Amino acid sequence: MPKSIYVGNIPFSTSEDDLHSLFSQYGEVISVKFIMDRETGRFRGFGFVEMDDAAAKQAIDALNGKEISGRALRINEAQERQPRPRRDY
Questions:
Q1: The dihedral of CA 45, 14, 28, 59: what is its sign?
Q2: Which part of the chain is the RRM domain (predicted)?
Q3: What letter would DSSP give residue 9?
Q4: Which single residue of 19, 51, 68, 82 could bond 56 by disulfide (Cβ 3.0 to 4.6 Å)?
């Protein structure tokens, strides 16, 4: 079953292909998705990688804290997004 991995503190010079190559060292990468700001369309510095369960665990253990372009990646198993409280204007 695929597992979603949160990848934070990604350097802005990194591409989705770069992240795909990095994670593919630990198993098959199903998908890579960078999160973009809704208003500006700019990359927000984090994203998600989807891999099978065993490969995901290996990648998380091996890559959490790894420095890329002077920034230490923060990598962990993605959590379900919590519902946001509704804002009334």
A1: negative
A2: 3-80
A3: S
A4: 51
pTM of the shown model: 0.86
Q: pLDDT at residue 84 above 80? A: no
Helical residues (DSSP H) of 30-83, grouped into ranges? 53-63
**CA pair distance 63, 40, nearest whole angstrom:** 29
Residue ranges per structural domain of the chain: 2-77
pLDDT digits (tens, 9 = 90+) for 1-21: 899 999 999 999 999 999 999
| Spatial distance between the Cα atoms of 86 and 69, rounded to a whole number of angstroms | 38
- Residue 26 identity: Y
Q: Which two tokens stand for residue 54?
A: 């065993």
- The one-character DSSP state at 22 is H
CA-wise closest residue to 62 among 17, 11, 23, 12: 23
